Amino acid sequence: MLRVALTGNIGSGKSTVAQIFNVFGIKVFNADVEARNLYNDKNVIQLLTAAFTNIILTPSGEIDKRKLATIIFNDKIALERINSIIHPLVLKKYIEWCILNKNDRYTIHESAIIFENKLQEKFDFIINVSAPVNIRIQRVMDRDNIPEIDVRKRVKNQLSDEEKCNLSHFVIINDEKRFLTPQVQLIHKTLLSYSQ
Predict the structure, then answer these.
(1) Which of 174, 31, 33, 26 is nearest to 116 (CA)?
(2) How does pLDDT run across 4-15, given as a tens digit for each residue?
(3) Mean pLDDT in each 10-residue stretch from start to end of the chain (196 residues)?
(4) Residue 184 vs residues 27, 45, 84, 111, 171: alpha-carbon distances, Å
(5) Among 18, 63, 79, 177, whose Cα sits 20 to 30 Å from the Cα of 70?
(6) pTM assigned to the model
(7) Are strands 28-30 and 2-7 parallel, antiparallel or unpaired?
């Protein structure tokens, strides 16, 4: 089985591209969803409160994701600290998931921060979803109902789109001018040819 990473900066449209791969019958591991699910795990809550104190908890003892996001997107050290807690756990889940799907020709691992977490060596191929920064910012503002300044803080914590394109094997352009499905289909056919 080929392990393929699907990455792209915030608002690039990774999830839309992942859905298209799914339509072609390819299984997708969504690292962001897995990471969010971990915030409900009691052991993870203990680790995070040890790192960031009870300030990140709601009155009912759950992780306040907005508060946590405000902290980590304004402080690189805090972001590195949370990544060091969450991402090894996500990676463990991904390895277990790969074992369950080992008979597939290839699978997709969707994550915004493949390069930022230096995970590129774990994959046979990397696909980057690329979109102009102004389009990405507007998408995130519309999707998450947050101000532009907050989106720009998140953008600053990621590698530039150009760097990600240069480091990737395939690039999908999602600029609202080009159709996504034909781009995905071409990559899908190429990956199937490599996985024979």
Answers:
(1) 31
(2) 999 999 999 999
(3) 97 96 98 92 94 92 90 86 92 96 97 92 97 96 92 89 97 96 98 90
(4) 14, 38, 32, 17, 10
(5) 18
(6) 0.89
(7) unpaired
The correct answer on CATH 3.20.20.70 for the domain covering 1-27+101-196 is no
* Kind plus residue range of the DSSP H or E element containing 158: none
The pLDDT of residue 73: 80
The amino acid present at 76, given as its one-letter code, is K
**Tokens 């609202």, residue located:** 176
Report CA-CA distances (Å) from 4 to 107, 114, 187.
Answer: 6, 11, 11
Q: Where are the domains of the chain?
A: 1-27+101-196, 33-88
**Identity of the residue numbered 131:** A
CB atoms within 10 A of CB 45: 17
**What are the start-end ranges of the E strands in the chain?**
2-7, 28-30, 106-110, 125-130, 170-173
Q: What is the pLDDT of residue 171?
A: 98
Structure token pair of residue 10? 């915030």
Count other Cβ atoms within 10 Å, centred on residue 86.
Answer: 19
Closest CA to 109 of 26, 181, 174: 26
Instruction: Report the pLDDT value the prediction gives residue 62, as an integer from 0 to 100.
Output: 93
**The residue count for the chain:** 196
